[in-house]
Design goal:
heterodimer, A: about 325 residues, alpha+beta, Uridine Diphospho-n-acetylenolpyruvylglucosamine Reductase, domain 2, Enolase-like, domain 1, 12 strands, about 30% helix, B: alpha+beta, 7-stranded mixed sheet, 5-stranded mixed sheet, about 25% strand, globular
Chain lengths: ~325, ~750
């Protein structure tokens, strides 16, 4: 770990001003990922700006049926157990509870979770010389290395890392909006535009500017999100990152016709993967297994695997089918 | 079932309160004045030479006291590899002294060690050290090391290349049912919660104290004292608690010598706590195996031939090998012909070591899966097949097994599990949409015993302190030895204080090979006899004693705390009265270390049977173990609760082996890609089923006077096969490469 300075922000403006003045500073939320990466020597901020005392830990219903606003400092466990979230957005509650461990969820914040970095072995362990995300231009160790947990959609020849977050998969399905504050004021980033595909800038995970602070995440009102589900497929029953995960919601009419569908995938891409092809395929069809499988096939048509993760293509198809079947069965 | 005879009392752990309150001090938790911290620099190439080490930036970093490398290390001499476990000379599976020269033999090898005043300073400065290499092409795969392959004739003292009867003839006999399959197990890493670590403090140029997390304090003392040319007693080793080991703390690994070297270089005590990532490269691991198992049996299930060919890896700086065939097929069933071969391939990977049931564990996985395949080929129940081939005598040594109750294990296990309700047809049993599979396997592990010594200080208030340089790896040894001391010495459990984990105490061997309870138990039996004789000597000279002028040979303990005449128990005297009348506050009695002579008339082996249920979603086929029954025949169970813990822990570790554990390596650098506890999957609580543990049999007094055989390792043996067999039963798919992750069932 490099020596670093520690300061504590008293307000959101204070935090933004602080980071604008120190380009090599980082915000410290729960620290569950950042501190780990600092110990590993992957991250080496010169200053940590502690934002734990900012008044950003509220969960509030927006007026006029406008959805829910989640403060950036809300802890994952508080969000998962919140009555409003459990009843109106069960997919989000389930996603959160499937991630990490209770101890980590008690610390991890919503804003921090949006910035969680990949668990690619070659990124996380600086002993490996090649990683374009950690060291641009050094190559990708994973493409010809051990790549069980890696991407099958949207990857580039520069990077095949995956985003490890469960929460973000649900937020992608829910069309969340990320509210941020920077030196020039506030702006909103639609969730689909928040994370990036690797392209040839694998070192940049998100479209958040280095001097911007995430203040909240807005969930739009989606009445049918009450019929939603998060399915996580992993190598053990608990405390493992997703091989493949699916966040799904269905709007069904009384004859089981799909009026609208939301599907997002985790564990398959550099960003939480909104499965728009699958959604298109589902809309207007009868909610049955054949429809679900066809939608999964459509979404995975462009998938490409590697030596150790090729199985994820079929696994993702099965997981989509299973998750949608589960949602359809929710009364 | 003779449970009443074998089950000792269900004692709570004597160290339980100290552990849950944090009062129990583990090795690197000791506070040593002026102690500095070490942080390693690891090689990230697998083979080559170090061409330069630039420490200029690191030297200037705050707090740095020394940077040790091959260029400047205060070099101990090569202490020699003593593999023999009963030698008392310690074990070194990696034979190279750290920082010996500029050679790199594997990725993750320590190439430098930074010592600083705080751990943060050391960690930061270590990152500033620049090492340059001249890399060479490493050997990383078994196939690449073909030209260096060797067939070891022995592992420790036992033969590992075995041949009895005429195997070829049986396999040529077309009237027999034959099975031939290859099974593989990956590299597995011990990963105890407490990482290895050493504090080294030189009190003088020739006096060294080590607080070391170890399974063998006397072994560390011997190796380190020889390395520095010191009288043995000038090196003290202290280790009152170990937070799990599973074999990775049995040998002396580079960090122990490196801590002493760094402390010498820095002139202050040095703490070297091995990092979790280095637990994957610098303290050993279970080496991967490829095992070809061939079986031939008559139509009614009688085995005629067994062949077990094992290929394993070792490092280029060690000899360690995993004798999978000899320790499973070489002992398990009655077969007139057995052929076991073992080949080891040295590669540029870190040195393997013993991990819970080395040999037996991967070997039983292959053999017990093959037996399941044979049962299906014969259309026979797998339990019945095993009963038909039950070995009354050791199939290679041809001597009887002592106190073997394996058939009872099968019977009790099958009954508890409900095995008779099993429909043998694969994929035939369901729980709603879930596939249900039931599998079983035999467990076995040899009973080992070594020499040990012990000391007791008996006080006139009737309390006693008993000491032996043995170990508690988190297993409950403190409690077991307190219990045995209480029974043997004849003092109340609450009045005994048992002390271990110090090289100052009388000799205890390595806590490995499940030998400790049997070994130290026997030493405590001998200690009790010596104590009682010493007290008898005092009594017979005491005019006020009812035993005055009696022949000491006629005197023994007639009741707890009381000596009396064997022939006339009305003539007796209590320990306390004997001491008080001679006005002694206490007496100290110590037994000498004796070499344990092997009893060659018998084969001593513990046995058991695992029955396992799995449930699998056929669409997303992650295997969930839903229940398990484990029945164990290990002689007497000294204390029931820790013993049961050992079996539960072993079976869970076997479930992890079956379903998720694997250390995967990067094929280009030879570094482990998996080297933290997020990526290296062991079973979580959510993966662990309820495990019903039962003990059957009788005390094995042929083996030792306590009647107990070991219990630490047998739990894991067979468990992975039982799971794999259950997976086959559930799905009809035979996965022969562990772990059985869901991609292999899609």
């Amino acid at each position: 770990m490099n020596p670093f300075a520690y300061t504590r922000a008293a307000s959101a403006d204070d935090a933004v001003n602080g980071i604008a003045a120190k380009p090599r500073a980082k915000f410290l939320g729960g620290g569950t990922n950042l501190v780990d990466l600092m110990k590993m020597g992957v991250e080496a901020p010169e200053t940590l700006i502690d934002i734990n005392r900012l008044p950003l830990a509220q969960i509030e219903q927006l007026p006029n049926g406008g959805g829910v606003r989640i403060g950036a400092m809300v802890r994952n466990s508080d969000l998962a157990e919140h009555a409003l979230i459990k009843s109106s957005y069960p997919v989000l509650s389930e996603a959160l509870l499937s991630g990490a461990s209770p101890q980590l969820r008690n610390m991890a914040t919503v804003g921090g979770n949006l910035l969680q970095r990949t668990r690619c072995y070659y990124f996380y362990d600086p002993a490996f010389p090649a990683c374009n995300k950690r060291n641009p231009g050094s190559g990708c160790g994973a493409i010809n290395g051990y790549n069980r947990i890696h991407a099958i959609l949207g990857q580039s020849d520069q990077c095949i890392a995956t985003n490890p977050s469960d929460m973000c998969v649900a937020l992608a399905a829910l069309d969340a909006v990320v509210r941020v504050r920077g030196p020039k004021g506030e702006r909103e980033i639609p969730f689909a535009d928040f994370h990036r595909l690797p392209g040839d800038t694998a070192n940049i995970d998100t479209n958040l500017a280095p001097d911007e602070l995430i203040t909240a995440v807005d969930l739009p009102a989606i009445p049918f999100a009450a019929r939603s589900h998060y399915l996580k497929v992993r190598d053990r029953a608990s405390y493992a990152f997703a091989l493949v995960s699916v966040a799904a919601a269905l709007d069904l009419d009384s004859s089981q016709q799909i009026k609208a569908a939301r599907v997002a995938l985790g564990g398959v891409a550099h960003k939480p993967w909104r499965a728009r092809k699958a959604e298109e395929e589902l809309t207007g069809k009868t909610a049955d297994e054949l429809t679900f499988r066809a939608a999964a096939e459509a979404e995975l048509a462009a998938a490409r695997g590697y030596k150790h993760n090729i199985f994820k293509i079929e696994l993702a198809k099965r997981a989509i089918t299973q998750a949608l079947s589960t949602v359809a069965a929710v009364s | 079932m003779a449970e009443g005879n074998i089950l000792g009392p269900a004692r709570n752990r004597v160290d339980g309160k100290a552990k849950v309150t944090g009062a129990a001090k583990y090795s690197v938790e000791f506070e040593v004045p002026k102690c500095a911290y070490a942080w390693p620099v690891d090689s990230n190439i697998a083979k080559g030479k170090i061409t330069g080490i630039d420490t200029s930036a690191a030297q200037k970093s705050p707090g740095v006291l020394a940077i040790v490398s091959h260029l400047n290390a205060p070099k101990p001499k090569e202490p020699g590899a003593k593999e023999s476990r009963d030698s008392g000379h310690g074990i070194r599976n990696e034979e190279r002294v750290p920082f010996a020269d500029n050679e790199v033999h594997y990725a993750g090898q320590y190439v430098a060690l930074v010592v600083a005043q705080t751990i943060e300073q050391a960690r930061h400065a270590a990152r500033l050290v620049r090492v340059s290499y001249a890399p060479e092409q490493p050997l990383l795969e078994m196939e690449e090391a073909e030209h260096r392959a060797r067939k070891p004739s022995k592992n420790h003292d036992e033969n590992v290349q075995l041949k009895t009867g005429n195997v070829d003839a049986a396999f040529a006999d077309s009237s027999l049912t034959r099975i031939e399959q290859t099974y593989s197990t990956p590299t597995e890493t011990h990963n105890p919660i407490e990482m290895s670590g050493t504090i080294a403090a030189w009190e003088a140029d020739d006096k060294l104290t080590l607080w070391d997390s170890t399974q063998f304090v006397k072994g560390v003392q011997s190796i380190v004292s020889r390395a520095w040319n010191l009288p043995t007693e000038n090196v003290r080793v202290i280790c009152p608690f170990v937070g799990g080991a599973f074999g990775c703390k049995g040998a002396v690994w580079p960090h122990v010598l490196a801590a002493a070297m760094a402390a010498k270089a820095a002139g202050v005590p040095v703490k070297f706590h091995v990092r979790r990532q280095d637990m994957f490269t610098s303290i050993g691991h279970r080496t991967p195996t490829q095992q070809k198992v061939s079986l031939a049996a008559t139509p009614d299930g009688k085995l005629k031939a067994m062949r077990h060919v094992t290929n394993t890896l070792t490092s280029t700086v060690g000899q360690f090998t995993e004798s999978a065939g000899a320790r499973s097929t070489g002992v398990m069933y009655a077969s007139p012909s057995i052929w076991v071969e073992e080949t080891v391939f040295p590669v540029n990977m870190s040195t393997p070591t013993f991990m819970r049931a080395p040999g037996e564990c991967p070997g039983s996985y292959a053999l017990e899966c093959a037996m399941d395949e044979l049962a299906y080929a014969l259309k026979m129940d797998p339990v019945e097949l095993r009963i038909i081939n039950h070995a009354d005598n050791h199939p290679v040594k041809n001597v009887p097994f002592s106190a073997k109750h394996l058939k009872e294990c099968y019977q009790v296990g099958a009954e508890k599990f409900g095995w008779s309700k099993r429909n043998p047809k694969p994929a035939s049993m369901r729980d709603g949409e879930l596939l249900v599979g039931w599998g079983m396997a035999t467990k076995t592990y040899p009973a080992h015993i070594q020499g040990a010594a012990a000391r007791v200080t008996l006080k006139a208030d009737g309390s006693a302190t008993v000491q032996c340089a043995t170990h508690d790896l988190g297993t409950g040894a403190y409690t077991a030895f307190t219990q045995i001391s209480s029974e043997q010495l004849g003092l109340p459990f609450e009045k005994i204080r048992f002390e271990l984990g110090k090289s100052d105490y009388p000799f205890g061997p390595v806590a490995g090979g499940s030998n400790s309870t049997a070994t130290v138990g026997k030493a405590l039996h001998e200690l009790a006899e010596a104590l009682h004789q010493t007290l008898a000597q005092l009594a017979i000279k005491d005019p006020k004693s009812p035993l005055q002028n009696q022949n000491p040979q006629d005197i023994s303990m007639v009741a707890p705390g009381r000596l009396g005449l064997k022939t006339d128990s009305s003539k007796s005297d209590t320990f306390i009265d004997i001491l008080r009348r001679v006005r002694r506050d206490s007496i100290i009695v110590e037994t000498p270390l004796k070499t344990e002579q092997a009893n060659k008339n018998w084969a001593f082996q513990s046995w058991g049977a695992d029955f396992v249920e799995v449930k699998i979603n056929p669409v997303l086929p992650r295997v969930q173990v839903t229940r398990a029954v484990s029945v164990i025949n290990c002689g007497r169970v000294v204390t029931f609760k820790p013993a049961r813990n050992q079996i539960i822990g072993g079976v869970n570790m076997g479930i992890g082996m079956a379903l998720m554990e694997a250390t995967e390596y990067d094929p280009q650098t030879g570094l482990p890609a998996i080297r933290n506890l997020a990526d290296y999957h062991v079973v979580t609580n959510a993966d662990a089923p309820v495990i019903d543990v039962a003990f059957v049999g009788e005390p094995d007094f042929t083996f030792n006077p306590i009647g107990c055989r070991g219990i630490g390792e047998i739990g894991i043996v067979g468990a992975a096969a039982a799971v794999a067999n259950a997976v086959y039963h559930a799905t009809g798919k035979r996965v022969r490469d562990l772990p059985i992750t869901l991609d292999k069932l899609i």
